[in-house]
Design a protein that fits this description.
206 residues, alpha+beta, Glutaredoxin, five-stranded mixed beta sheet, 5 strands, disordered N terminus
């Protein structure tokens, strides 16, 4: 179990102090929501057979960064049982570039590695006024990616289109901030790590 007091406090602060918001949108019907939540090209951190967990995130969002270790622990705890899907909701200056780097890495089967590198180093590159493109390319090189292929994918307009589609899907779902979670199509509003664990356990027992 994840019941660590320090993490609980981090989560409470992250959710209660959430400031990364987009204008509120009308919420679509249940059937429309299912289509918007996960697309065929949505990146997966893990595949599971019993439930689907979706996180709309911004790599530069402080709340997302605070919850990153919690999500990693959940992935370990529910390995093989829950599919973890990432959707993008870039709200900051370099978060779009970070998402492009993640998508470009995914083209070489290294989405998870880039996802982790971006969060592990977020305090170094986040909230900078200048573009961090060169930093992200440095991460790709460190990960041993084919740099010609990475560059081509990063600069490919279709890569940007996938990220923009994710943003539009989130807005259509009425998402007003990051991170926002869904489990088996139901939006979660946890106030603690225990709330997340309980939601997972309930879904897997259902």
């Amino acid at each position: 179990m994840i019941g660590v007091a320090a993490l609980v406090l981090v989560v409470l602060l992250a959710f209660n102090g959430r400031s990364d918001e987009t204008p509120e949108q009308a919420v679509p019907s249940e059937s429309e929501s299912a289509d918007l939540l996960v697309r065929d090209d949505s990146p997966r951190l893990a595949e599971g057979e019993e439930a689907v967990f979706v996180e709309f995130l911004d790599f530069e969002c402080e709340a997302c960064l605070s919850l990153y270790p919690v999500i990693e622990n959940l992935r370990e705890e529910y390995d093989g049982r829950v599919t973890f899907v990432v959707r993008y909701m870039p709200l900051h200056g370099n978060s779009l570039n970070a998402a492009l780097a993640a998508e470009a890495a995914a083209e070489q089967g290294e989405f998870e590695a880039m996802y982790q590198r971006l969060f592990d180093t977020a305090e170094e590159w986040g909230h900078q006024e200048s573009s961090q493109r060169n930093v992200f390319f440095g991460y790709a090189k460190e990960l041993g990616l084919d740099m010609d292929a990475f560059t081509a994918a990063y600069d490919d307009p279709t890569t940007l289109e996938r990220i923009e589609q994710s943003r539009k899907d989130g807005q259509a779902l009425g998402i007003t901030g990051t991170p926002t979670f869904f489990l088996d199509g139901e939006r979660l509003q946890p106030q603690s790590v225990s709330d997340l664990e309980e939601a997972f356990d309930d879904a897997l027992q259902g």
